[in-house]
Amino acid sequence: MNLILASASERRVQLLKRISKDFKVMISDFDEKSVPFNGSVSEYVISLARGKAEAASKKIDITEALDTLIIGCDTLVALNGEILEKPSSEVEAYEMLKMLSGNTHKVYSGIAIYDLSLKTMKADFEVTEVKFSSLSDLQINKYVSTGDCMDKAGAYGIQGEAAVFVEGINGCFYNVVGLPLNKLYKMLKGMGVNL
After folding, report:
1. 36, 73, 81, 85: most buried by Cβ count inside 10 Å?
2. Rounded to two decimals, what is the model's pTM?
3. 33-42 pLDDT, tens per residue?
4. What domains can you pick out in the chain, each with its CATH number?
5. Burial track 141-163 (b if 16+ CB lie within 10 A, e otherwise)
6. Helix (H, G, I), strand (E, B) or coil at 81
7. Is 106 left (phi over 0), alpha (psi -120 to 50) or beta?
8. Which residues have a catalytic role annotated?
9. How does strand 68-79 pair with strand 2-6?
């Protein structure tokens, strides 16, 4: 079985290594802006994951397609139905963290597994609730100045210095990091893959 992770995220690579040592990484060139947001975060994040898996599949030679599974994944932060993507500036990162301060938000990950042999795709999502403590401007500015916020949905990484912001979590921790391992493991098992 050839397993391919269609992601440039080093965090996802590290997480997938916890359940499989034998996989390849293929960066998907999927244009996320091509998927319109229709108001449902779960449907949106699944569509993004599907798009990443499909885009990566186009790079696979037909001779390699046999016994190949491509994993596409996308993670989003949502607060009161509004999606907080990766910040484009430190000012935007500050504003996002100010919104999250003292509130409970949801982290959604969509997973799509494309079986190239059967030309079928299974997709699902995971959602985790995360409660932030009330943050002072000094705390937010100090974290923003580290730069850790810039490549992460919602402008924070739970596995980094922002861990101290998290007062509580309800659901899968690894989902918040970027790859819900339990959900992925069950999906693969359901497709006959035993890791």
Report:
1. 73
2. 0.93
3. 899 898 899 9
4. 2-190 (3.90.950.10)
5. eebbeeebbeebbbbbbbbeebe
6. coil
7. beta
8. 74
9. parallel
